[in-house]
């Protein structure tokens, strides 16, 4: 385990942003409008945490053995349009204790980074709606469109590390609500990989990725950091 955590990388939807699974409900709707009948549980199980076009590919391949990039593109465009409308219409709020945790980490001089399977335009619209700003509540936002490869590849975390001149992955903690978040952190060599049960995946699902810890409340991150540095 690391001696010192210098950066915590948080997933957005389901982890630091409480949006009642708007993303995956919208994704389910867009896919099913193309002639399918997937349950929300299926969409969450296969798509959670992934870049959203990749999520569509994975869902179609996993449950229907379909590989059709034209179909993927069509569903994705419908999803993007519907998601923009949903985010304008529905309430989006910080996850419980998210802002309190951000402040506590800043008091400890620990960097707060958000990363997400959204493209930058969508992610920035959410950040703006929450009134979070880089340099204030958070130190950086890294999105799926900023890097060559998305989760479970470590590119987004490495991108953030490079920005802040962190060369040792063991000084980074990753927190997310899906197994692919945990795998991303492991692939980046993060010293602490934490699953949280406030979003897409259950405790049982998270356990399949072998996280270091599973928590139910973001504020529990502080005690985990204390354990690491003790």
Automatic annotation (TrEMBL):
It comes from the Bacteria. InterPro entries: HAD-like_hydrolase_sf, HAD-like_sf, HAD_2, HAD_sf, PGP-like_dom2, PhnX-like. Pfam families: HAD_2 (PF13419). PANTHER family: PHOSPHOGLYCOLATE PHOSPHATASE, PHOSPHONOACETALDEHYDE HYDROLASE. This is Phosphonatase-like hydrolase. It comes from Olivibacter oleidegradans. The lineage of its organism: Bacteria, Pseudomonadati, Bacteroidota, Sphingobacteriia, Sphingobacteriales.
